[in-house]
Every structure is written in C-alpha cells, then in structure tokens.
C-alpha cells in the first residue's frame, strides 16, 4: 500500500485516486494486471468503492485511456513549444524529454498498452509523427539536405522508442551518452 493510499483511507476516494492507482499498476505490471481486486488492495478499500465510481472494469479502462490521452496531449504541447528553440537546442530538448524518468515510465507503459489498444496506438502514433516533424525541421534548419535530414530525424525517433524499451534492461543513458548521441545527430 502506498503512502498516499494510507492517507486517503479515512476519506472518500476520487476518480483520480482510482486512475492514479491504475496508472501505477499499468507502469509496474502492465495493462493485463489492472484488476478491480488489485486496485482495491492497493488503495485499501472494498469493491463497493470501485463501483461507486465506475460501472465495471471497462469503464475504468476507458477513463484510464482518456487520462493517458490527456498526458500525451500535454506532451504534444511540450513538443510544440520546442519550435521556438534554435535547431540544435530542439534536438537536445527532445533527447532530454525522452530520458526524463518521470516521462519514460509513463511513455513506456502507454506504448506497451498501445500494442493491444487501437485508440492508444493512434495517440502514440500522433506523438511519434510530431517528434519526427520537429526533428526533421530541426535537421533541415541545421542545413542538412532532405535525404540526410530525413534519416537523422528517423534515427532520433527510433532511438527514442528503443531507449524507452531497452532502458529497464540497460539502464538510463548517461549525460555523456546523450551528448555523444546529440553530436552524432547534429554534427557533420
């Protein structure tokens, strides 16, 4: 049981409490582990509390999917704000975003869920498209011709996705790793 669930035991849970618990299970154990009984145990409440907020597990999963889409929408806004930066700074900011532990835990879990849920997959694809567009524009702004700008933007996208999936086994990228990667992408 988490510290937050202990402090909430004496008060009524909210939909956000249930979504937070479901997100924690999604991140730590995957979408298949999200079960009413597991969430109730995590929050220290009975199933009646769950049914107070949701008609069934499908309603929770829809609310969780909506929550994940809002998180991804916020990520898209953050990416859109990068447009104002100089091109090399845009690339560096994108590398920093993907290597931020708060971001990659959620992103990795959502990407895994997207493998089995088309609505989540559509949201993830939109983020990937935006990452590619921003990286491609930055590479063009750095003076790379089209084929090379495309290849470098694709490399950034694929490396970011690979990092999300490989990081649990290989650990986080060091600052040197990130700097060398940025130099490889942006250097001539």
Automatic annotation (TrEMBL):
<feature type="domain" description="HTH tetR-type">
    <location>
        <begin position="12"/>
        <end position="72"/>
    </location>
</feature>
<dbReference type="Pfam" id="PF00440">
    <property type="entry name" value="TetR_N"/>
</dbReference>
<dbReference type="InterPro" id="IPR050109">
    <property type="entry name" value="HTH-type_TetR-like_transc_reg"/>
</dbReference>
<dbReference type="GO" id="GO:0003700">
    <property type="term" value="F:DNA-binding transcription factor activity"/>
</dbReference>
<dbReference type="InterPro" id="IPR009057">
    <property type="entry name" value="Homeodomain-like_sf"/>
</dbReference>
<feature type="DNA-binding region" description="H-T-H motif">
    <location>
        <begin position="35"/>
        <end position="54"/>
    </location>
</feature>
<dbReference type="InterPro" id="IPR001647">
    <property type="entry name" value="HTH_TetR"/>
</dbReference>
<keyword id="KW-0238">DNA-binding</keyword>
<dbReference type="GO" id="GO:0000976">
    <property type="term" value="F:transcription cis-regulatory region binding"/>
</dbReference>
<keyword id="KW-0804">Transcription</keyword>
<keyword id="KW-0805">Transcription regulation</keyword>
<protein>
    <recommendedName>
        <fullName>HTH tetR-type domain-containing protein</fullName>
    </recommendedName>
</protein>
């Amino acid at each position: 049981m988490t510290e937050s669930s202990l402090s909430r035991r004496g008060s009524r849970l909210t939909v956000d409490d249930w979504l937070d618990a479901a997100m924690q299970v999604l991140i730590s154990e995957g979408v298949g582990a999200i079960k009413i009984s597991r969430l109730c145990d995590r929050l220290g409440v009975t199933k009646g509390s769950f049914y107070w907020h949701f008609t069934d597990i499908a309603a929770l999963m829809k609310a969780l999917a909506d929550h994940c889409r809002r998180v991804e929408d916020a990520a898209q806004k953050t990416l859109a704000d990068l447009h104002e930066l100089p091109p090399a700074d845009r690339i560096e900011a994108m590398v920093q975003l993907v290597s931020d532990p708060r971001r990659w835990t959620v992103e990795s879990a959502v990407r895994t869920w997207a493998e089995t849920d088309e609505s989540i997959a559509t949201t993830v694809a939109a983020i990937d498209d935006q990452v590619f567009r921003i990286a491609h524009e930055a590479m063009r702004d750095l003076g790379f011709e089209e084929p090379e700008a495309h290849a470098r933007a694709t490399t950034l996208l694929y490396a970011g996705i690979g990092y999300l999936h490989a990081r649990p086994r290989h650990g986080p990228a060091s600052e040197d790793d990130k700097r060398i990667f940025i130099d490889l992408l942006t250097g001539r």
